[in-house]
Write a structure and sequence with these properties.
Blueprint lengths: L2 H15 L8 H9 L21 H18 L37 H9 L4 E5 L3 H10 L3 E4 L3 H4 L11 H12 L6 E5 L9 H13 L5 E3 L5 H12 L4 E6 L5 H4 L9 H17 L3 E5 L3 H10 L4 E4 L7 E5 H4 L6 H6 L10 H17 L17 H32 L4 H4 L7
Parallel strand pairs: 1-2, 1-8, 2-3, 3-4, 4-5, 5-6, 6-7, 7-8
Helix pairs in contact: 1-3, 2-3, 5-7, 8-9, 11-12
Length: 429
């Protein structure tokens, strides 16, 4: 094959496929390659090049420049930039993107990476989310850990507590989240009633959460002897476990409601012991919920695994908030009643959503939507006239059918009754 032919085919692949968004830049790149280095910036660009007339050296320069640009186009979008999802490169676990000067580059998080962050005192970010769209946002934002929590019951499903949440509901949401993100460590909650009866039952549910829900670890609450035994069995079975102490929402009924824990000295000392026992049982991390910051600080210092605080002050290894809470998404009374005091809203997405819905309703009522701009589909040339002709013919046939039916009805009403119809019925007896 001649060099020119091969190079033109390479250019055709770039231009036609548009795989890296370069289809509009082929000619621009070729003009740059043909412009002399000494030309000034205000020099008019040369005419569009004729690829058929270019020799092998010129074509090779164009292809080389396009290939270089395409490699840059595949790099990770920097943190903070807003781009379409198609432009965001997804990475597999353990992959490290090429670092570029002045940009945040996100490494996929594993349990080992999480421990390194704790040892280097790099604060860990964790978000609780429940579906595909929120998982995509969490992934693109560079969050370290994504928890699919049983709080889905209160935030998404409308339950008053987490107790009614079933394992199948958790499995459903875990699957959705796993399809939306690749970078964060994925942790799934074992819901109430799926691990308390026996370690074997806990193991069965945990395996399903990893195999069917595509999670990488599970979280369970408590640190009593039975729970510690369960943790040991799960870890020995190859399941990574995150612990959870302090306020444990699944113990809502025994705690007498959602109450802060460790506010008294003996309770605080017990929390430290619970954390140590959980670490000894094999957890890779633990959540501290609704605990005074002094207590959370001592718990964090007493263990060598990461601690993730929620309403536990600034001294833990990391922090977690619920996706809907931190975005200020929920505006209904149920959520206002259940929203904890420690939740900080970083946005008011709920207000924006409500405003948009009200505007939509109003535009529909006043026939402002859809406008011609949002009615983009047109009939093919000549088809509209044919369609109108067919409609007219159909209306004419319908009119004829109506007239025939009316005429038949009139004739049946005007028909005289036979004499037998008016006679009195014959009396046999």
């Amino acid at each position: 094959m001649q060099p020119q032919l091969a190079l033109r085919q390479a250019l055709s692949r770039f231009n036609v496929a548009g795989r890296y968004g370069l289809s509009q830049r082929v000619h621009a790149v070729s003009r740059r390659s043909m412009t002399t280095s000494g030309s000034s910036s205000d020099t008019p660009p040369p005419a569009e090049p004729d690829f058929e007339a270019m020799d092998a050296a010129e074509l090779r320069a164009v292809v080389k420049e396009l290939w270089k640009t395409s490699r840059l186009a595949r790099h990770q979008v920097p943190h903070g930039s807003i781009s379409a999802p198609a432009e965001v490169m997804r990475v597999t676990k353990g992959a490290l993107l090429e670092e570029e000067k002045g940009q945040d580059v996100f490494k996929a998080i594993s349990i080992v990476e999480l421990q390194k962050m704790r040892d280097k005192k790099i604060p860990i970010s964790m978000v609780t989310a429940y579906d595909y769209p929120s998982a995509v946002h969490v992934d693109v934002a560079g969050i370290d850990v994504l928890l699919v929590g049983d709080s889905v019951g209160m935030v998404v499903l409308g339950y008053d507590t987490t107790l009614p949440v079933t394992f199948e509901e958790m499995l459903h949401h875990c699957r959705a989240v796993s399809r939306g993100c690749k970078r964060p460590l994925l942790v799934g909650d074992l819901p109430f009633g799926t691990y308390e009866v026996s370690a074997a039952e806990a193991q069965r549910h945990a395996y399903r959460l990893l195999k069917e829900g595509n999670m990488e670890a599970v979280k369970l609450e408590g640190a009593d002897n039975d729970r510690l035994r369960t943790v040991e069995v799960l870890v020995k079975g190859g399941i990574a476990v995150m612990g959870h102490i302090g306020l444990t929402p699944q113990s809502y009924s025994t705690l007498g409601g959602f109450r802060a824990q460790g506010r008294h000295a003996r309770q605080a000392m017990e929390l430290i012991e619970q954390a140590k026992r959980l670490e000894a049982a094999g957890v890779f991390s633990m959540v501290l919920e609704c605990v005074p910051e002094e207590v959370a600080k001592e718990v964090t210092a007493a263990v060598s695994v990461p601690t993730i605080g929620i309403g536990a002050g600034p001294h833990t290894s990391g922090q977690v908030l619920v996706y809907h809470d931190l975005l200020g998404m929920m505006q209904h009374p149920h959520h206002a009643k259940a929203s904890p005091k420690f939740c900080k809203s970083y946005s008011s997405v709920g207000v924006t959503i409500n405003d948009a819905l009200r505007t939509f309703r109003q535009e529909v009522r006043t026939n402002q939507f859809p406008s011609p701009k949002y009615s983009p589909y047109k009939m093919a040339a000549g088809e509209k006239e044919m369609f109108e002709t067919l409609l007219a013919q159909e209306k004419e046939r319908a009119s004829e059918r109506d007239e025939a039916a009316a005429s038949l009805q009139d004739s049946s009403q005007s028909k005289p009754h036979s004499s037998t119809d008016s006679e009195e019925p014959i009396q046999l007896y």
